[in-house]
Amino acid sequence: MKDYSKYFKKPSLQEEAKRCKDRVVINKEGLLLDEVTSDMGKNKKYFVRTYGCQGNQADGETIAGILEFIGYSKTDDVENADVILLNTCAVRENAEDKVFGEIGALKRLKTTNPDLIIGICGCMSQQPHIVDKILESYPQVDLIFGTHNINRLPLLLKEAYFNKERVVEVFSNNNEILENLPVSRESKFKAWVNIMYGCDKFCTYCIVPYTRGKERSRLIEDILQEVESLKNAGYKEITLLGQNVNAYGKDLNLGYDFATLLTKVSDTGIERIRFVTSHPWNFTSEMIDIIATRENIMPYIHLPIQSGDDEVLRRMGRRYSYKEYKELYDMIRSKVKNSSISTDIIVGFPGETEEQFENTLKAVRECKYDSAFTFIYSPRVGTPAAKMEDNVTDEEKKNRFNRLVEEVSKSAKESNDRFVGKTVKVLVEGTSKKNENILSGYSEENKLVNFKGDISKVGTVVDVKITNSKTWTLEGEAVGE
Ligand code: 5AD
Ligand code: SF4
Questions:
Q1: pLDDT at residue 1 is higher than 60
Q2: How far apart are CA 95 and CA 21, in angstroms?
Q3: What's the 13 CA to ligand 1 centre distance in angstroms?
């Protein structure tokens, strides 16, 4: 190993698997800057591409905010960029393959612009074997940093830029919450609000507890302050983010939980509140009651089931049986008016039998999901499931996946059909790429609606009468135009 900067810290999976009992440190320092870094981006441009979940999208907006704070301006064209950052996802192999393809494609830019900095951050950076692969095979990458040290980005960039050495700084175990970082939000009316970081569930297939660290909740006053300032800035919708929002507050031991948070966020009067993701394990009836009774909490719940078979659920480490899941599901459906429920499903978990897969199909049929995200199981290095024996062929997995998609599509279409002739409230996000008179946005139930309306309505909530339903979208016309 040579030519590495003094910043050379690789991740360790063993360290990432540990959970310390220490109280979380709230770091309010904000950005770490010095004389050089505070305006090092002047007259320079940055390009950030984010992959993966909403949590990672939110990180991408913080990274953009930091770069803008130190003078960089945004470009959507990699050819013009002085800094390119790929904010990556590690949840499945195909997400990682896309990133490696992208890194390969960026190599030629180094010959036309030798000062270009290419950086990799996000969940892939937290995996030791990925860092090794990049160091060995992708010399065009100058900088690797992880999910825990975004606040140090200016410092790391300076090191990569001035010392011309490869910078690797990935912390494995983290007990901090970073507050007061600048954010550059993509939307002027929809915003992500982190309420907690990390995950302690350790589902056997999942890499997230390693890449994102232990469950850490933000203080309720910090969250409320952010929501208030978003409301004052004209934001119409916020989405509360966490790998498992129902566990909010547990680590703090301050006597409040997700139900308390929902109530207080609702009291701010912001127009629309959403939240993701809900693990069935910590969902209480009190939380459901609040969702059911508060007008500004949207009746949409993402409730991952992963499998409809008890034995597979047990081997996944999901901590519930299908019966328990279905009871919770039914309670939500009966209490929350016009509820819309989506889910995540994995097919081809190691050793999944045809019969076990059919239990998943049966669950989809019974639950009548409004939509579902379906995945073929992807082994993740270091997770328990990756060591389980797997005798299901790729062909069989693909076949099950296709059958599942068919079942899920049927369910989604039936769900959409019930909206035809009804009027829904849509927060208008923009116009169709093909036709300026076609607007689109999401209904309260999280249905994507395309409709005829006036461009001046972008950023407002309008009533739309639904005239037609497709599997994944609704079509309609603005009422009163
Ligand atoms: N393989 C396939 N899908 C996965 N997910 C998480 N880990 C894996 C994996 N190893 C899916 C789960 C999760 C969603 C975000 O991604 O369904 O809920
Ligand atoms: Fe991907 Fe999970 Fe990381 Fe989100 S937390 S970016 S889904 S690996």
A1: no
A2: 32
A3: 19
User: Residue 384: nearest ligand to its CA?
Assistant: 1
Q: Given the CA of residue 205, which atom of ligand 1 is nearest to it?
A: 10
Tokens of 62: 């913080």
Q: How far is the CA of 375 from the centre of ligand 2 (A)?
A: 14
Rounded CA separation 434/143 (Å):
39
Confidence of residue 437 (pLDDT cuts 50, 70, 90): confident
DSSP string, 56-99: HHHHHHHHHHHHHHTT-EE-S-GGG-SEEEEEE--SSHHHHHHH
Contacts of 138 (CB under 8 A, 6+ apart): 100, 103, 104, 107
The C-alpha atoms of residue 12 and residue 128 are separated, in whole angstroms, by 6
Ligand 2 binding pocket includes 141 (Cβ within 6 Å): no
Cα of 304 to ligand 2 centre, how many Å? 15
Residue 40 has what DSSP assignment? T
Domains, the chain, ordered by start: 13-176 (3.40.50.12160), 183-417 (3.80.30.20), 423-478 (2.40.50.140)
